[in-house]
Design a protein that fits this description.
Helix content: 25-40%
Radius of gyration: 25 Å
Structural class: alpha+beta
Strand content: 15-25%
Strand order of the largest sheet: 11-12-13-14
Shape: globular
Number of strands: 18
Length: 421
C-alpha cells in the first residue's frame, strides 16, 4: 500500500496521456518506464541539473534520480542489474502508432537506452519523429503522483485514473469537472478493448463492466486521491453508456487547504515550475501561483543579495530597498525573468554562484593572445578552479562560432567588471 496522499511530482503533457489510451499504445511496464523518464527529467529540472530537452542526440539523466523514480510506489526496495537491463529493453520497445487520412505508420520513442555504472548516468537517444518539447510541459499538462501510478497493477485502472485527472484539471481544489458519461464503444477504444483479443467483452457489456471497469474503479479508490463510482445508462434493454463520478477525497482537499495556508512556500514546496515559451502564459502563471513569494535572488544588474519578489498586488518588488520596481525597471526585469526561468525559486545560491549564472551569455571584448588584437566573445560556460584560488575556467565563443577554453586565467571579478557590449 503506498503512503497516503503523496505529492504530485509528475507533470505529464495531455498528449502523452492520450497517446497511451486509444489502441493501448503501451503495456503497463512500458507506461511505468516512460513515466519514470518523465519524472527523472522533471526532478533534474527542479534541481537545476538540466535546462532544456534536446530534439536530437543523447539525453543524459542522473542514474540515482532515475532509480529513485523507478522505486516510487513499487513493492520492491532495491533494483538489481537484471531489472535495469529489462527496463532498458522495455524502453527501446516502446513505439507509437498513428493513423491519418493520408497514411498509417509507427515510430519508436527511444532508439537507444543504456546505463553506465562508472559515471552513474542514463543515456537516452530519442527517435527522430518523437516530439521532445513536451517532456517539460509548458501548458496542457496534468499533475499526477508517480507513487500512485506505479502502484497500479491494473492497466485499465491506470488509464482511467489518468483520464479522470486530466478532466479534473491542474487544481484539484477547483476541479474542471468530476463526472462524465462515456459511450461503451468509446470506452473500448480508450482501454484498448478489441474484437481480436477481447471478444467476450465486446459482445457482453455486463461482463465488460464486471471484469474491466469495476476492478479498475476499486483500485483507483484504494490507492489514489479520488473516490470513484459508476452508474450504467441503458438504451432500451441494453447498457449503452457508463456515467463516472470521480470527486477528490475529502481528506485530500483538507490536506491541500492546510498546505495552502502555510506562509511563503519555497520552490521545493511548489515541486515543479513549468517552463514557458510564450511570455503571456509565463506572466499569467507567476501572477496566479507566485503572488507574495520571492522570485529570484541576485538577478543580472543587481547585487547578489538583492531578492525580487511578486507583491500581493502583482508588482515586482525589491525586498532589500522595500520598493516596487519602476515601470522601466519592471519591464526589464520581466524580460530577464522570462529569459532565465530556471533561476526562479533558487533562493539559496551563493554570491559566487549568482555571479557565474549572471555571466552566462555575456558579450565583451577580449584580447587575442595570438594576434594581439581585440575581438568580441560570448561567455558560454564558467567553472571554478579548485587548485587556483579565485581563478575560473571559461568557455568562450567567438564571432565565427568557434569556441575556446581558457583555464585559470580570468578571475570572477575580472569577468564581472569587464565592459559588456
Amino acid at each position: 500500500m503506498p503512503p497516503r496522499y503523496p505529492v504530485e511530482d509528475l507533470y505529464k503533457h495531455n498528449d502523452y496521456i492520450k497517446m497511451v489510451q486509444i489502441k493501448k499504445q503501451m503495456s503497463l511496464q512500458q507506461q511505468r518506464i516512460f513515466d519514470t523518464v518523465l519524472a527523472s527529467i522533471q526532478e533534474m529540472k527542479k534541481a537545476g541539473l538540466i535546462d532544456e530537452i534536446i530534439s536530437e542526440g543523447e539525453l543524459v539523466l542522473d542514474f540515482h534520480i532515475f532509480r529513485e523514480q523507478m522505486l516510487k510506489g513499487a513493492t520492491i526496495k532495491k533494483i538489481n542489474r537484471s531489472e535495469l537491463q529489462k527496463a532498458m529493453e522495455t524502453m527501446v520497445d516502446i513505439k507509437f502508432s498513428y493513423e491519418t487520412d493520408d497514411e498509417v505508420g509507427a515510430f519508436v520513442i527511444f532508439q537507444k537506452a543504456r546505463i553506465n555504472f562508472e559515471d552513474n548516468k542514463v543515456y537516452l537517444t530519442f527517435g527522430k519523429d518523437f516530439r521532445t518539447e513536451n517532456l517539460l510541459p509548458t501548458a496542457n499538462y496534468t499533475a499526477l503522483s508517480l507513487t500512485y501510478l506505479n502502484s497500479f497493477s491494473s492497466q485499465y485502472g491506470r488509464l482511467l485514473y489518468q483520464y479522470f485527472k486530466m478532466l479534473i484539471g491542474k487544481d484539484i481544489n477547483r476541479p474542471f469537472r468530476t463526472d462524465i458519461t462515456l459511450d461503451i464503444d468509446f470506452l473500448h477504444k480508450l482501454l484498448g478493448i478489441n474484437p481480436k483479443e477481447h471478444t467476450n467483452y465486446i459482445n457482453n457489456n455486463s461482463l465488460f463492466i464486471n471484469r474491466v471497469i469495476n476492478p479498475a474503479i476499486l483500485q483507483i479508490n484504494e490507492t489514489t486521491d479520488l473516490i470513484t463510482r459508476i452508474e450504467t445508462v441503458k438504451r432500451g434493454r441494453k447498457i449503452s453508456h457508463i456515467q463516472f463520478f470521480f470527486p477528490p477525497k475529502e481528506e485530500v482537499l483538507s490536506k491541500k487547504k492546510e498546505n495552502a495556508e502555510q506562509a511563503q512556500p519555497s520552490k521545493e514546496n511548489l515541486l515543479f515550475i513549468p517552463t514557458f515559451n510564450v511570455f503571456k502564459e509565463f506572466r499569467e502563471w507567476l501572477l496566479k501561483y507566485m503572488i507574495g513569494k520571492n522570485l529570484v535572488k541576485g538577478p543580472k544588474g543587481y547585487l547578489p543579495d538583492v531578492v525580487i519578489s511578486l507583491s500581493s498586488k502583482g508588482y515586482l518588488h525589491n525586498e532589500v530597498s522595500k520598493n516596487d520596481l519602476s515601470p522601466d525597471d519592471a519591464m526589464e526585469m520581466w524580460t530577464w525573468l522570462f529569459n532565465n526561468q530556471g533561476r526562479i525559486g533558487q533562493m539559496n545560491l551563493s554570491d559566487r554562484e549568482i555571479k557565474c549564472f549572471n555571466l552566462k551569455n555575456k558579450k565583451f571584448i577580449a584580447m587575442n593572445h595570438e594576434s594581439h588584437e581585440e575581438e568580441k566573445v560570448i561567455v558560454r560556460e564558467i567553472e571554478f578552479s579548485d587548485d587556483v584560488l579565485e581563478k575560473v575556467s571559461v568557455l568562450l565563443e567567438k564571432e565565427d562560432g568557434s569556441k575556446i577554453q581558457i583555464d585559470n586565467f580570468f578571475t570572477l571579478e575580472t569577468l564581472v567588471n569587464a565592459k559588456e557590449i
